[in-house]
Write a structure and sequence with these properties.
51% of the residues lie in helices and 14% in strands. This is DUF2142 domain-containing protein.
Length: 566
Amino acid sequence: MDIFKQVWKNTHINSGKEKKQYVLFAVAMLALLFFEIVLYFAAVQPRAEDVRIMDNQTPRITSSKQVTILSNKSNNKTYEQLVRSEKPLGGVAILLGTYDNEFVEGRMTVRLYDGKTEQLLETNTLSLEDAVDNSYYKLFFSRAYDTESDLYLITITPQLSEDEGMCAIWMTKDKDDFFPKQATVDGKSLKAYFNIRPMYTAEFLPGFYWAIAGGLLLFVFEAFFIIKRFRKVQYVFLVCAILFGFLYMLVYPSYAVFDEERHIPAAFARASAWSQGQWDVERGADIQIREEEEREGFMPTRPKIEQYYYLTETIFNGAETDEYVDIEMPTHISYSHEYIPQTLGVLLARTFNMGQTATLYTAQMVALIFYSVLCYFAISISPYPVLFSIISLFPFFLRTMGSFSYDSMVNALSFLVIAYILRLAKEKTKVKRKDILIISALFVLLAPCKVIYTTLVLLILLIPSNNFKQKRQKFIWLASITGICLLVILLSTGFYFENSFGETGVVTSPWGEDAYSVSMLLSMPWEFIRITVSSMFDLFASLLFGAVGNFQHISLPSTLSILFLA
């Protein structure tokens, strides 16, 4: 009882102003809860009821037709498939795949016939807008059809708009081959391969909605009392970063945004190299990962309901095998440390024999914590803590902070470097040797990650010369750190020395992108500087106008729609 009395004493409202704040907070919480309840009954529950009806009409279709390869030359050609379904047919599922990460726009006209009498039962048109890689389409008929022969004829007529675009249509995928030997659709086959339900069920929508909505309520509640208790912006940032970053990880799962298909194998490759104690340079882009991690999951596309099912149903699955397989690295390899947080997360997951989904989320959580902690220290030492907190929570950074992208490391180190230099610029005290060593160490870590961030050394010019023991020390320090950064960049991969003076257009290797940049810098310095400065202005404008109100490549309305599944 004494403990409760002490807690009540510490939280007791002592003034009318404070009482008003609590009343306004309670009203805001009730208003938010009321909005979530209205949204649930207006959008989520009707959708769940529609799904419950369709659950009883899940098609069971089998066929021996080979996979269909489509191109623009396939336009207006009709592809037939005779299927058998003992139960009433309420819809069909189509998995559309494209090549080389291309977008293929167009539409498909799907007609359903009685398989015996060839009577036309229904005609539907599917839009293929924004279809890329694996896009899972579900076509629900206006009603469930039940023919006497249990035979149905399905025809597909594509109209593709891209001249070079190609895609493949199949009903499911064979486990042993990228292209299926048989085009098959039935509930058991789909669940066996993807470990997902072929058509989402009614129970999933309310549960997922209230998990997100409840998390939002909890965040608002905790943030209010943290602000009241600590009144320090870095604590508020820490709570916002972890909670918003975690919610963002749920809304946009792994493989659901661009470039994740490159960064994920990069982290897996480094984890394998660390665990084996060496990196075989002669093998170039050939790396080893666990067979468990090779599984496709979902390639980059906008999040779909099947992805959430796949994640929720496999999150607690352990690895089925510890065997390693060889794959080709889809991006350049370097000896730098930009993937350290994600690599540590992968190694931790492997230690506990986690499956693919748990491994992905563990690595993302480690990256999120790493980013949040570094930014916490940056905000703590910055003379502009509120500004740094707002910038660190831009939607663009929210996506990268808990992802496999090395931008999580780059952004966190950049904030820390800038905050430290600005603190030295604002303070009237002399710059100490400790400060020089810390700034130098941060730049040594940052420079190999992205060469362009070496230009941050120019911020040293903001430090007043009077803060140094001798005025020329500032320029000596600037030149020394710049030289150290360039040396670290060159030494981060031995391939630089081999290709630095070569022709810029013929650099091909796992380190080709970096070698190309160094080659251009040494052979065409003024053109390199012009392109660099122009890119800086262009990307700054993109960040300024694209980050506020937009979530990376996805607009805010689309994000909210996916968030509430409405």
